[in-house]
Design brief:
Elements: E1 3-8, H1 12-21, H2 38-51, E2 55-59, H3 70-90, E3 95-97, E4 99-100, H4 106-119, E5 124-128, E6 130-131, E7 134-135, H5 142-151, E8 154-158, H6 174-192, H7 195-198, E9 203-206, H8 213-227, H9 235-239, E10 243-245, H10 252-263, E11 267-268, H11 279-289, H12 295-309
Parallel strand pairs: 1-2, 2-3, 4-5, 5-8, 8-9, 9-10, 10-11
Antiparallel strand pairs: 6-7
Helix pairs in contact: 1-3, 2-11, 3-4, 8-10
Length: 315
């Protein structure tokens, strides 16, 4: 089974709700063709068929239900999770889903996590690389990680689209360089805080080949002991506890570096639909096939590792 772990979907109703609740950036997602109209779904399924992708795991990030107002966050999270549940029920051979949580509100997030996994059948949760300015190592999120660890469930991480809170990463740089920088910062927050080893049964999935992590990991190992001596294990060891999707925009050297540095066994197929669609969606698969990696690694990356990771082998 070929599973795309990194695919987005936003109905116009959900985006309108986010806008009404105060997210003034949500509307921009509506022009990307990742909605729920019959035409949009038909076009999506046609692209999946062309690329040989059987199943997509949907996530709302980077348009999550994160609000400082708890009632707003809960309303938006329940709305979109119910919407995803209906889509999975209507298209069981095409969609699974990661739940959105009403963060940063811990108790409400735990309640929605339980509902989404136990009642709606979701595979885990999706979270942004930072949540309203809070890092992923914020103590408020530890109970969520503890519950995911107890369940052996998935934490899918995606850039928030805030330029890593840097004034130097303006709107013209937010996604082309800001997103992989956010990936890199987030994974290091997790590693320095010891989250991967503290919650070993929680399956963390980072996008975009881990950002700059494959290139920087040897440097990090050398710098870490004097800069962050409280880190509980060597960063390169912690990095091997995490999974990474293959969204690399058809750049084979980056994919090969990630396989060599992080391990081909830690890579899973991602498309980043709708940011990669049409030929770009197909290339998300074909560039892995053309990468020159060993045939068994390619097969595992495209068709096996995600199935095992998500527990889909018995579906």
């Amino acid at each position: 089974m070929r599973v795309d772990v990194h695919a987005h979907l936003w109905s116009q109703a959900y985006l309108d709700l986010l806008t009404r609740l105060g997210n003034d950036r949500a509307a921009e997602q509506g022009r990307l063709g990742a909605g729920t109209t019959e035409a949009e779904l038909d076009a999506r399924f046609e692209q999946m068929t062309t690329a040989g992708v059987d199943l997509q795991v949907l996530s709302t990030t980077p348009a999550p239900p994160h609000f400082e107002n708890e009632s707003a966050a809960v309303e938006a999270a329940r709305f979109v999770n119910d919407e995803y549940a209906r889509l999975v029920q209507e298209h069981p051979g095409r969609f699974k889903a990661f739940a959105s949580l009403p963060l940063p509100h811990t108790d409400a997030a735990l309640a929605e996590l339980g509902r989404a996994v136990d009642e709606l059948g979701f595979l885990g949760v999706a979270i942004t690389t930072s949540v309203l300015g809070r890092t992923l190592a914020d103590p408020a999120f530890l109970p969520v990680y503890e519950e995911l660890d107890r369940r052996g469930s998935v934490l899918f991480v995606h850039p928030a689209g805030v330029g890593a809170a840097s004034p130097l990463i303006g709107p013209e740089l937010t996604w082309q360089i800001g997103a992989p920088i956010e990936d890199t910062v987030a994974v290091m927050h997790l590693i320095v805080a010891g989250i991967p080893s503290r919650f070993p049964r929680m399956k963390i999935v980072l996008p975009h080949l881990g950002g700059a992590l494959p290139m920087l990991l040897p440097r990090i190992d050398r710098q870490n002991p004097w800069e962050a001596p409280e880190t509980p294990e060597l960063p390169s060891l912690a990095a091997r506890r995490i999974f990474y999707d293959t969204v690399g925009h058809n750049h084979i050297p980056a994919l090969r570096l990630a396989a060599e540095t992080l391990g081909a066994d830690r890579l899973v197929l991602g498309s980043d639909f709708p940011y990669q669609k049409g030929d770009g969606f197909t290339e998300a698969v074909t560039y892995v096939q053309r990468s020159g990696l060993p045939e068994n690694d390619v097969t595992n990356i495209l068709d096996r590792t995600a199935v095992d990771l998500l527990g889909l082998g018995t579906d």
